[in-house]
Amino acid sequence: MMMRPALALLVTLIAATGCVTAPEPKTAFNADEAAFVHAEGRNTITGQAFLRRNDGVVVYAAGSDVHLIPKTAYSTERMDGIYRGAKINTYIQSPPMPDGYLAAMRDTRADGEGRFAFAGVADGSYYIVTTVEWLVGYTPQGGNLMEEVSVKGGETRDIIMTGR
Questions:
Q1: Interacting residues of 148 by C-beta distance below 8 A, sequence separation 6+
Q2: CATH number of the structural domain spanning residue 148
Q3: What was the pLDDT predicted at 16?
Q4: Is the whole-model pTM more than 0.90?
């Protein structure tokens, strides 16, 4: 009978590990600081996002939304909380987005091979975020990928997003 409380505690602890939420940034979101994302520029950012499964099969971000997020004090603190120094997040949930945050980014969709492009990008530093997921049984695998990129002077940057 002593096993029941221990088993209940174990189940609770296992369930709780899947519910980790990143802390809300202490820095307030400032739409004016992020407005450069919508300015017309001469730069282009292209890339491809994928993950390699343990069995060696490559899974692309096919059909996934890809977000171009301006690097600001708020977005930097948010990315630090979500990714914690890594380029992949497999279990930490994002904190709620403040009003105006979604409007302060550009979006596109990856093609069947996980390729994406943003044209007319203004000079500046950005985060690029997307998702690569697949199912094993009914369990989702993969995660969210993030890369940091800076552009200026009409350059084209090609990035590969693999979580490394």
A1: 71, 125, 126, 127, 128
A2: 2.60.40.10
A3: 46
A4: no
